[in-house]
Amino acid sequence: LTNCNSQHEMTQEQLNELSEKEYSYVNQYATKPFYRLQVNKQACRLVIESFGRDYRFLENEGESMLIPFNYMIAGSGPQKIKVKVYPRFGEAYITKNAYVGLNLIHATNNTAKLNEYQSLGTFTLPKNIEELKLPYYEGEITFDAFVPYNYVDQLNEATNLKQLKNIRELVEKKYKQIHQLALDNNEYEYIKGFLFSYGKLSNTHYATLEEIKWGYKDGSRLVPPSPKPFDKKFFPLDDCEMQFYADGKIVALWHKDKLTSGLDMSFKYKNNKGEINEHTIADPVFLWMTEGSDELKIW
User: Fold this and answer.
1) DSSP 8-state secondary structure symbol assigned to residue 32
2) What is the pLDDT of residue 201?
3) In terms of Cα–Cα distance, which of 177, 173, 190, 171 is closest to 4?
4) Which residues contact 259 (CB under 8 A, 6 or more apart)?
5) What residues of the chain score a pLDDT lower than 70?
6) Which residues, other chains included, contact 293 with Cβ-Cβ below 8 Å and sequence gap of 6+?
7) Helix (H) or strand (E) segment spanning residue 57
């Protein structure tokens, strides 16, 4: 959603502060193993869920991409990827046109060429999927991961959110705080809230300080303020469902039918021809709470 916040520029001092803070979460490792997931899907919606988060492919049309997967791995050891397949939006069942093909690949370092990666596991939809008339299909990929970082210990020491009686109230309050930062175009505070999350991404991708600083210049973190969005509106959270991850240590809100994040927002903008277009965007947000705290933070 920082895409939609850049109606005023941050100072260079603020950019440097954010870059250095993000880099403070990055460690130096002797080994840099890397995992990627080749995703091919069509005529369906797809959710890839790991121990602590998920990755969503929600276009009704076909999608094909090779995504970095280290960020989805919390630490070394046995891993289980849940593969959740849903019909296209507006359809009741998964049709014969649906296809999902996944291939998880691994290399011993992050600079390896694609032909040096080895396959660790694959997944495809059953060929007779239409005959089953399913509104939902779930499968899995299991593998062993070996990574130099470890976020599992942090999660083990975190609060079990399922045990909090007012967890729904706390989660909605946090989402609405993030909503307001986006509506106020307060990009600096918005990004500050995500710095631990961004730092995990940079750490698991073995980023350098120079690469992080460049991210704040080239648009990975910030987007130039044109075209300027207007009439920004978040979809109400009333229809959202809570989903827990990491044995109850992480929680997120997802719109039930659309499967999009609780940060699903619509906005308008003018294109190069001066025509007004409407678009939607939704950052995924996963929340956690350190033991002894009463405040949810972005994981």
Assistant:
1) B
2) 97
3) 190
4) 45, 47, 56, 58, 86
5) 1-8, 218-227
6) 159
7) strand 54-57
- From the list 262, 202, 200, 219, the residue with the least C-alpha distance to 5 is 219
Tell me if residue 99 falls in helix, strand or coil: strand
| Token reading at 83 | 């593969």
CB distance 181 to 193 below 8 Å:
yes
Distance CA 209, CA 199 (A): 11
Classified as helix, coil or strand, 183 is: helix
pLDDT tens sequence across 110-165:
999 999 999 999 999 999 999 999 999 999 999 999 999 999 999 999 999 999 99
C-alpha dihedral sign at 283, 151, 206, 36: negative
* Res 223: pLDDT: 47
Quickly count: other Cβ atoms within 10 Å of residue 249's Cβ.
24
Helix axes 209-218, 12-23, angle to 10 degrees: 140
pLDDT digits (tens, 9 = 90+) for 214-240: 988 755 565 444 467 889 999 999 999
Strand order in the sheet with 34-42: 63-68, 34-42, 99-107, 118-124
CA distance 223 to 169: 32
What does the block give as tokens for 62? 């076909």
**What is d(CA 269, CA 162) in angstroms, rounded to the nearest whole number?**
40
Q: How far apart are CA 50 and CA 73, in angstroms?
A: 7
Where does residue 1 rank: exposed (0-12), middle (13-18), buried (19+ CB within 10 A)? Answer: buried
**Token pair 């603020």 is at which residue?**
14
The label of the residue with tokens 């390896």 reads 112
221 vs 25: CA distance, rounded Å:
16
